[in-house]
Amino acid sequence: MSETKLSCVACGASYPLWELRYSCSCEGLLEVTQASSSKLGLPELFEKRLMSRKVWDRSGVWRFREGLFPLSETSYVSMPEGQTGYYEVPGLTRWAGVEHLAFKHEGENPSGSFKDRGMCAAVTAAKKLGVTTLACASTGNTSSSLAAYAARAGLKAFVFLPAGKVSAGKMAQTLAYGAKVLAVKGDFDDAMQIVRSLAQAGRVYMVNSLNPFRIEGQKTIIWELLQDRNWEAPDWILVPGGNLGNTSAFGKAIEEAYQWGWIQKKPRLATIQAMGASPFFRSYERGFQSLEPMQAETVATAIRIGHPVNFTRAVKAIEKTRGVVAAVSDAEIMAAKAAIDRSGLGCEPASAASLAGLKQLVAASIIRPEEDVVAILTGHVLKDTDAIMQSQDLSCYDVDADRASIEAVLDRLS
Ligand code: F0G
């Protein structure tokens, strides 16, 4: 039986799973490759675990542990994350122009975004490796998640944020959990380069999605949504793309679920970028010949990224799933966000890119109306309240504390 190990996505070289490294000696990105033991009956085991009271069975990440990386059960760091809602919303289905649409709401994770699924895995790996100082570059969600999980595990966290470009809620959350915040005078891509070089020099343990364990945790978004659907794969899965960690994780999760006999067909992946931060989309249009970094600008600050570090992994994910990449304008993102918010689900702007992208791909006849679609909502509505107050036609009514005048206002609004 072959071992679980780290393998290079570029040249195929392999390294021991617990060797502390982020890239191959050829500079290629590393991924965890699973031991070759049979994974065939695991969905039944995952189902049984839903009845358990143990945290590592209830967690929407560690419930799937045989498909991630092996450790003794008590070493898993957990809150417990995942177990997010799976929603069908008839109004939004009509809005998008399809017949079958569901949302997986990753904003329901402990720190309010999907990052918790990757972060519990990276922090668990950090403990196993014996490192004590963790770091990430972030547009605000990775930092909140790192801050929370480092606090939970008793480790130190340094986060590097683009100064003035992170929503107030994410900044407050990151500080509240006790991370040390360095506001970099530059953008996310500058902060990312700094963290990479600090990590190479051994100063910090990097938990951005370059870290292969992050990708392992994020695979469970796909596996949990497949479990929600009784292991019936949809035709399409749509996800917003920034640094492309999720796109990479989704490609790996789909491929493995298919290879291991958990699903009978592979869903197609659609990564949706904001037009002002769309280097992956531009590369896709040129047949993925190269990646040209760009200066990013978008209302969806979570995906304001011009030089995605997971590019090569993400290309593989799109190619292996016969996927597509699209880009939507800020106006399209905010229109989709308003529709999601009014449905009661709510999400932050970047998350709404998935629904905006769906509408565009249906209009372009790339997704057919009768196809079965799942869209991922990546972050909670409270993650970016500034975006709500600034761009939606919303305000409260100031009233005197007097019944008669309030009744007059009620009459006017009824
Ligand atoms: N949606 C939200 C809410 C995000 O926070 C991010 C990334 C993405 C989508 C894009 O995911 O990078 O895997 O393609 N946020 C990172 C952060 C960059 O630092 O919080 P991706």
Report on this structure.
- With 414 residues, this protein is α/β, with parallel strands linked by helices.
- Among the domains are: 1-37; 85-112 and 214-391, Rossmann fold.
- Helices cover 40% and strands 15% of the residues.
- It has helices at 42-49, 55-58, 90-96, 115-129, 141-153, 168-176, 188-200, 212-228, 245-259, 279-285, 311-320, 330-342, 349-363, 385-391, 403-413; strands at 5-8, 14-16, 30-33, 86-88, 100-105, 133-137, 156-162, 180-184, 205-206, 236-240, 268-274, 324-328, 372-377.
- It has a six-stranded mixed sheet, with helices on both faces. A four-stranded parallel sheet has the order 8-7-6-9, sandwiched between helices. The protein has a three-stranded antiparallel sheet with strand order 2-1-3.
- Helix 4 (115-129) packs across helix 5, helix 8 packs across helix 9 (245-259) and helix 9 crosses helix 11 (311-320).
- It is globular, with a radius of gyration of 21 Å.
- The model has no long low-confidence stretch (mean pLDDT 97).
- Bound molecules: ligand F0G.
- Ligand F0G binds next to helix 5, helix 9 and helix 13.
